[in-house]
């Protein structure tokens, strides 16, 4: 199956009609039908039968569909990369980050990088940890900043530093009158915090156990920024990372968490990938800013 035939086949499988597939590929219906016929002739078996104006995939088409989708995704990735290369000699740098470093560190990192490399095209992604790994593996990001340092062998990890946890409170909450908040203070509160099992939740659970306490969240979140609206609405107090710039949000305040565990911030890359010069420059800027802003690596 040739590349164009693969493209047509996957389009028809997704849409179910010649008209819809032709529109999605921006070609005429007769042209698409001709490509499909040639494909079936070369394969030696039918891929579709017609039923009430729609194309019904044959058993053979269903058998090869998953592999065709995988190959088509690879082809699309190759096309994106060749398009990126056509952008010029300056190149393209794709960097991804979870929300806390994306809001607190990445703006200054990109600003410093832009002053050194004004002609490089920058592309940023903000996503949770699982999506960051997928972006790296798909080639849609060359570097990622994540609040974890436990990865599979195909992901290279460089620990940049650590942050801690804080308590996010409504401004009028009684705990806001204290200089800090302890795990014991939280025992009678409705707590908003990370779901289990995640790295932040594991660290909080361990820290509370060391004091003979149980850390329990009555409202679980996936990413820390989602706690803002819940706290503003009076649903409880949140235990979240101290990296995100919480002062930007109205109606809430933060207090340090006593005996807070550390939470690592890491730079992730593919273990077998060689960075371009432009990407190495971005890595340098990330390292330099994190060395100033974060607590040192233990």
Automatic annotation (TrEMBL):
InterPro entries per record: LysR_HTH_N, LysR_subst-bd, WH-like_DNA-bd_sf, WH_DNA-bd_sf
Pfam families according to UniProt: HTH_1 (PF00126), LysR_substrate (PF03466)
Residue ranges of domain HTH lysR-type in the record: 1-58
Coiled coil: none
Keyword vocabulary terms for this entry: DNA-binding, Transcription, Transcription regulation
Family: Belongs to the LysR transcriptional regulatory family.
PANTHER family the record matches: TRANSCRIPTIONAL ACTIVATOR PROTEIN LYSR (PTHR30427)
Protein name stated in the entry: LysR family transcriptional regulator
Organism listed in the record: Pseudosulfitobacter koreensis
């Amino acid at each position: 199956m040739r590349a164009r035939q693969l493209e047509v086949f996957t389009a028809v499988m997704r849409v179910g009609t010649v008209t819809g597939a032709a529109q999605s590929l921006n070609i005429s219906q007769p042209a698409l039908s001709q490509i499909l016929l040639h494909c079936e002739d070369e394969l030696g078996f039918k891929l579709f039968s017609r039923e009430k104006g729609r194309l019904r995939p044959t058993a053979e088409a269903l058998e090869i569909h998953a592999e065709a989708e995988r190959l088509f995704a690879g082809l699309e990735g190759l096309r994106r990369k060749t398009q990126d290369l056509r952008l010029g000699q300056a190149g393209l740098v794709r960097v991804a980050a979870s929300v806390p470093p994306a809001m607190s560190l990445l703006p200054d990192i990109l600003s410093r990088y832009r002053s050194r490399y004004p002609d490089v095209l920058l592309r940023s992604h903000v996503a949770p940890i699982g999506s960051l790994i997928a972006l790296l593996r798909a080639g849609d990001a060359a570097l990622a900043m994540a609040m974890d340092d436990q990865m599979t062998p195909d992901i290279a990890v460089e620990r940049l530093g650590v942050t801690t946890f804080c308590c996010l409170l409504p401004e009028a909450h009684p705990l806001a009158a204290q200089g800090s908040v302890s795990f014991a203070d939280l025992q009678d509160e409705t707590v908003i915090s990370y779901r289990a099992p995640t790295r932040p939740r594991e660290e909080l659970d361990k820290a509370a156990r060391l004091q003979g306490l149980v850390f329990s969240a009555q409202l679980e979140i996936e990413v820390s920024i989602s706690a803002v609206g819940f706290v503003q609405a009076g649903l409880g107090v949140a235990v979240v990372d101290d990296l995100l710039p919480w002062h930007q949000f109205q109606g809430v305040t933060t207090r340090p968490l006593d005996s807070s565990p550390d939470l690592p911030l890491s730079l992730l890359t593919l273990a077998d990938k060689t960075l371009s010069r432009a990407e190495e420059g971005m890595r340098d800027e990330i390292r330099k800013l994190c060395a100033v802003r974060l607590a040192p690596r233990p």
